[in-house]
């Protein structure tokens, strides 16, 4: 989106002494250091809040006080433009001396009255982009919600109520499928989601803290930046799942029956798995760059070919783990519970 506000140069300030001044001190009077007074730029003048200014908004001229522009959104670009005279030139002026501001009237109305009002022919998406451009932070959440509400029903993510309704209506003997379903941002904490098929599902930024995900299929699901803190993940199938930036702190992957959780090829870049029980987990060729694996139980885990560059493994237990071909460049291995052996990396 092209920028809407012209940033043409302002006329130079005339305040201060000129370096080429030819004035001479009168005899007997104290001399003035002219060069010192002109060494720095003049201090910007703070405008009077009730000073009136004219704005040409999309061809229509509005007259308002500076307080309207400064007080509602003091951190916005508009406020910074008019906050200090001579500090930043607001924009070009029209023939009548009004500042030219290419701004939706809906934003102008919001600044004056604090309410979002716009004509039906305007697109909320367009107003949203304008609000982001001018930094009108208080208006952005309202517009984002309007955009979300106008999405087609089939594109909207399922909610906690939708998932609970499906759980109640489905027999325990029937496999429940959310394959390819959009659950982005859903609040699913503390729910019993055992044996559910989430293959290819979108679970980005989903809250699954303390949820029971035992025996779930998460193959190729998108769990980026999701919260799974304290979740149960026994025998989970997460082949090539995307868990970048996810919070898996304190999770339990170890199945007492000996069935391994399969996270082969998973993307755990930047994820937090601190204090998790990952004994026996298959993390072959997984991406664990910059991941936090402090104090993890990784006994007998398969990390062959895994990328552990800059990974924090301090305090972890890697006894009998398969580390063949793993990348440990710049990895932190302080305070390991058991020493690493070369046999773990060459078998």
TrEMBL record:
InterPro entries: 5peptide_repeat, Pentapeptide-BTB/POZ_domain, SKP1/BTB/POZ_sf, T1-type_BTB. Residues 1-45 are annotated as: Disordered. Residues 53-139 form the Potassium channel tetramerisation-type BTB domain. Residues 1-10 have a biased composition (Polar residues). GO terms for biological process: protein homooligomerization. Residues 11-32 have a biased composition (Low complexity). Pfam families: BTB_2, Pentapeptide. This is BTB/POZ domain-containing protein KCTD9. It comes from Culex quinquefasciatus (Southern house mosquito).
């Amino acid at each position: 989106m092209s920028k809407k506000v012209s940033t043409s140069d302002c006329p130079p300030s005339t305040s201060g002494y000129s370096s080429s001044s030819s004035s001479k001190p009168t005899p007997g009077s104290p001399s003035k250091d002219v060069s010192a007074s002109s060494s720095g730029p003049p201090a910007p003048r703070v405008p009077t809040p009730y000073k009136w200014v004219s704005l040409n908004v999309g061809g229509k001229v509005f007259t308002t006080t500076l307080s309207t522009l400064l007080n509602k959104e003091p951190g916005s670009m508009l406020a910074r433009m008019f906050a200090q005279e001579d500090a930043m030139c607001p924009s070009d002026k029209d023939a009548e001396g009004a500042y030219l501001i290419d701004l939706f009237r809906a934003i102008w109305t919001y600044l004056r009255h604090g309410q979002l009002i716009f004509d039906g022919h305007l697109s909320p998406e367009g107003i949203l982009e304008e609000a982001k451009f001018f930094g009108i932070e208080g208006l952005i959440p309202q517009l984002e919600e309007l955009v979300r509400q106008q999405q087609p029903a089939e594109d909207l993510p399922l909610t906690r109520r939708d998932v609970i309704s499906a759980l109640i209506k489905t027999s325990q003997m029937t496999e429940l499928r959310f394959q390819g379903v959009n659950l982005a941002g859903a609040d699913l904490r503390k729910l019993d989601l055992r044996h559910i098929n989430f293959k290819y599902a979108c679970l980005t930024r989903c809250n699954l803290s303390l949820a029971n995900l035992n025996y779930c299929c998460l193959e190729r699901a998108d769990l980026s930046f999701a919260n799974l803190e304290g979740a149960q993940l026994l025998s989970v199938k997460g082949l090539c799942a995307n868990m970048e930036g996810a919070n898996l702190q304190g999770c339990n992957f170890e199945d007492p029956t000996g069935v391994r959780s399969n996270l082969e090829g998973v993307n755990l870049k930047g994820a937090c798995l601190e204090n998790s029980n990952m004994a026996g987990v298959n993390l072959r060729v997984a991406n664990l760059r910059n991941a936090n694996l402090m104090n993890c139980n990784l006994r007998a885990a398969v990390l062959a070919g895994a990328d552990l560059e800059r990974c924090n493994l301090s305090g972890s237990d890697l006894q009998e783990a398969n580390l063949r071909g793993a990348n440990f460049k710049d990895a932190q291995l302080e305070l390991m519970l058991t020493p690493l052996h070369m046999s773990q990396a060459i078998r």
